[in-house]
């Protein structure tokens, strides 16, 4: 096959078509109980990320742009008194969801599907007015399942090429979720996926200080909505967008795609059930390092001023992703940087919302401690393969010469070491505790946990549509 053969005459499976059929035909009754429970937990976690995220400067800038456009007021921008078109509302809400490195994470695909899918399915529920909770949960699952499988197939090579999976593979989360909420058939869903692949984007250089990293999530969500809306109107996309050998998504964005991961266990092995949650307000790749470091400090009653040096062994991916020189480039850079995370954990004992406030990013005490931290690629961790890309080995040497070591191979919040629902509830309370009332917090928890009951979906939409000051 030459480089411009579009796959005609090939005996390869029609991967995109099979996934479109799966999404279009997915029913609530097909979903295992653990998947439904995971979607409710993800909805709560994502709402918390969005409500806190809408208060941040970069989200406000996107909101102000959307306000200036004056689109038809159909769907709420959560936590505000403003409504816009569905596409514009999800642009803001999904930017907010990814605005502070708190959103859920699927390890293999490197996708935060919640900040994309949740605003879309609830946005459609509000716009259409006749959706029920089972529709919403099924559409969320379709988005998660399709998007994460695309990310799996792209492999880490997509990241190493410099693309941000949230903006790239994230469009498939969005298109599948939107198509399902529109009740599109198999052919229309295929075209929705085919349109979304042409809109994939997002560059990882954004991690070193740019606001645009948060915008990748919003644009992915908006692109998926546009793709589904166009498909519903008979607009066509690339029908083999995933597997096309020339100009297809996987061959263009990844030099080492693994197409078999698109369909492995489809309908029996649920990627959705592998979604995890973040206990720290920073990039997932450094969570094991922070937890291993905190364990050493806690178990040995060590204070920051007793430490002479810290050495952190990580995978090649984590080293590339997070072990670059920190120069107080901004909040985004702080959240993506291993050295900052270790330093703030040494000083504060945690790396949560307050530790990444703008007022802290150039704190002299943090900058001084960063000078004590070294990071290296641990060949043994790398040899364990992609499943252990978040693993870390930490060594702390004190000024008195003593050395302490600890390793964590499976990140807290990963499928192998999951956070329980109650721990996500605890996180939700702490994330939104400073922006909404305790009564509203309790309501969000109750409504998402019992989404299928009575009028809970509509009550949830009404609550989301209120300004934060009235919640």
Structure notes:
- With 471 residues, the chain is an alpha+beta fold.
- It folds into two domains: 15-274, 2-methylcitrate dehydratase PrpD (Orthogonal Bundle), CATH 1.10.4100.10; 284-408, 2-methylcitrate dehydratase PrpD (60s Ribosomal Protein L30, Chain: A, 2-Layer Sandwich).
- 49% of the residues lie in helices and 6% in strands.
- It is built from 20 helices and six strands.
- The strands form two sheets. Strands 4-3-5-6 form a four-stranded mixed sheet. A two-stranded antiparallel sheet has the order 1-2.
- Helix 15 (338-348) crosses helix 16 (364-370).
Overview in brief:
The protein has 471 residues and is α+β, with helices and mostly antiparallel strands.
Q: What tags apply to this protein structure?
A:
alpha+beta, 2-methylcitrate dehydratase PrpD, 2 domains, two-stranded antiparallel sheet, 20 helices, 6 strands
- What's the number of helices? 20
- Give me the CATH fold name of the largest domain: 2-methylcitrate dehydratase PrpD
The average pLDDT is 95
Q: Gyration radius, to the nearest Å?
A: 22 Å
Summarize the topology:
Elements: H1 15-25, H2 33-53, H3 57-69, E1 75-76, E2 83-84, H4 86-97, H5 114-128, H6 133-154, H7 157-160, H8 170-181, H9 186-196, H10 212-232, H11 249-253, H12 287-299, E3 307-314, H13 316-322, H14 331-336, H15 338-348, H16 364-370, E4 373-377, H17 379-383, E5 392-398, E6 403-408, H18 421-432, H19 438-449, H20 456-464
Parallel strand pairs: 3-4
Antiparallel strand pairs: 1-2, 3-5, 5-6
């Amino acid at each position: 096959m030459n480089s411009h053969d579009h796959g005609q005459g090939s005996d390869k499976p029609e991967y995109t078509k099979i996934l479109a059929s799966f999404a279009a035909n997915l029913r609530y009754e097909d979903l295992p109980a653990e998947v439904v429970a995971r979607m409710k937990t993800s909805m709560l976690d994502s709402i918390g990320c969005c409500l806190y995220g809408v208060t941040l400067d970069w989200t406000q800038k996107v909101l102000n742009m959307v306000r200036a456009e004056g689109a038809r007021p159909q769907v709420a921008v959560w936590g505000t008194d403003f409504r816009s078109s569905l596409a514009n509302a999800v642009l803001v809400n999904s930017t907010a969801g990814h605005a502070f490195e708190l959103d859920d994470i699927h390890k293999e695909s490197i996708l935060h599907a919640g900040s994309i899918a949740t605003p879309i399915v609830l946005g459609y529920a509000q716009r259409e007015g006749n959706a029920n909770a089972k529709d919403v949960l099924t559409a969320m699952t379709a988005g998660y399942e399709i998007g994460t499988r695309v990310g799996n197939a792209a492999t880490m090579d997509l990241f190493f090429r410099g693309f941000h999976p949230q903006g790239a593979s994230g469009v498939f989360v969005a298109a599948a979720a939107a198509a399902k909420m529109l009740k599109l058939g198999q052919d229309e869903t295929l075209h929705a996926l085919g349109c979304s692949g042409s809109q994939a984007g997002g560059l990882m250089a954004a991690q070193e200080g740019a606001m645009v990293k948060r915008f990748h999530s919003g644009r992915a969500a908006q692109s998926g909505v546009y793709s589904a809306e166009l498909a519903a109107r008979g607009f066509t996309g690339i029908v083999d967008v995933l597997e096309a050998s020339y100009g297809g998504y996987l061959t263009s964005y990844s030099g080492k795609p693994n197409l078999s991961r698109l369909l492995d266990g489809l309908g029996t092995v649920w990627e959705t059930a592998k979604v995890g949650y973040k206990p720290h307000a920073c990039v997932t790749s450094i969570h094991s390092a922070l937890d291993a470091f905190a364990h050493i400090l806690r178990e040995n009653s060590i204070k920051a001023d007793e430490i002479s040096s810290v050495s952190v062994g990580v995978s090649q991916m984590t080293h590339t992703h997070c072990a670059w020189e920190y120069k107080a480039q901004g909040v985004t850079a702080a959240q993506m940087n291993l050295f900052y995370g270790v330093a703030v954990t040494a000083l504060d004992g945690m790396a949560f919302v307050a530790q990444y406030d703008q007022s802290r990013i150039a704190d002299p005490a943090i900058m001084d401690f960063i000078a004590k931290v070294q990071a290296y690629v641990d060949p043994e961790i790398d040899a364990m393969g992609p499943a252990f890309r978040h693993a870390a080995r930490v060594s702390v040497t004190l000024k008195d010469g003593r050395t302490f070591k600890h390793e964590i191979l499976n990140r807290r919040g990963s499928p192998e070491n999951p956070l329980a629902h109650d721990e996500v509830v605890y996180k939700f309370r702490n994330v939104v505790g400073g922006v909404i009332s305790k009564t509203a917090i309790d309501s969000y928890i109750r409504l998402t946990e019992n989404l299928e009951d009575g009028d809970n979906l509509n009550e949830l939409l009404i609550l989301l549509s209120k300004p934060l000051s009235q919640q």
